[in-house]
């Protein structure tokens, strides 16, 4: 994989925004401009995923897990990952009992 660098970092920036209205009518907005550090292994999806997870926590959106996965997967990979996670969670539940 080639390393993408930019001396002025201008093209390595993305702007992402989220808007959420909860069932009670509370409105949450967030917009951030962030640098994607490609040469450190980041990509746009990883940066967007971190921002989405942070936003969901800030607006109190309930999740039973800490992270919503943002990655570029084939359908086959997504199915395999979902199957693996089901098995892992079943094992965790069995270990708790």
Stretches with pLDDT under 50, minimum 5 residues: 1-7
Described by strand count, sense and barrel closure, the largest sheet is:
2 strands, antiparallel
Output the radius of gyration. Answer: 17 Å
What is the overall shape?
flat
The SSE string, one letter per element, is EEHH
What proportion of the residues form beta strands (DSSP E)? 15-25%
Helicity level = 25-40%
Ends distance: 45 Å
Structural class: alpha+beta
- Side by side, the strands of the main sheet go 1-2
Q: Concise description?
A:
By secondary structure, this protein is an alpha+beta fold.
Describe this structure as you would to a colleague.
It is a single chain. The protein has helices at residues 44-58, 75-96; strands at residues 13-21, 27-35. The chain is an alpha+beta fold and 97 residues long. The chain has a domain at 10-70. The longest helix has 22 residues, at 75-96.
Helix/strand layout:
Blueprint: E1 13-21, E2 27-35, H1 44-58, H2 75-96
Antiparallel strand pairs: 1-2
List keywords for this structure.
alpha+beta; two-stranded antiparallel sheet; flat
């Amino acid at each position: 994989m080639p390393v993408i660098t930019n001396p002025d970092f201008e093209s390595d920036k993305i702007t992402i925004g989220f808007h959420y209205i909860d069932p009670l009518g509370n409105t949450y907005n967030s917009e951030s401009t962030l640098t994607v550090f490609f040469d450190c292994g980041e990509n746009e999806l990883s940066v967007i995923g971190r921002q989405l997870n942070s936003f969901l926590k800030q607006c109190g959106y309930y999740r039973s897990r800490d992270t919503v996965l943002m990655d570029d997967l084939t359908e086959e990979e997504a199915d395999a990952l979902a199957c693996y996670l089901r098995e892992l969670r079943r094992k965790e539940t069995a270990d708790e009992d």
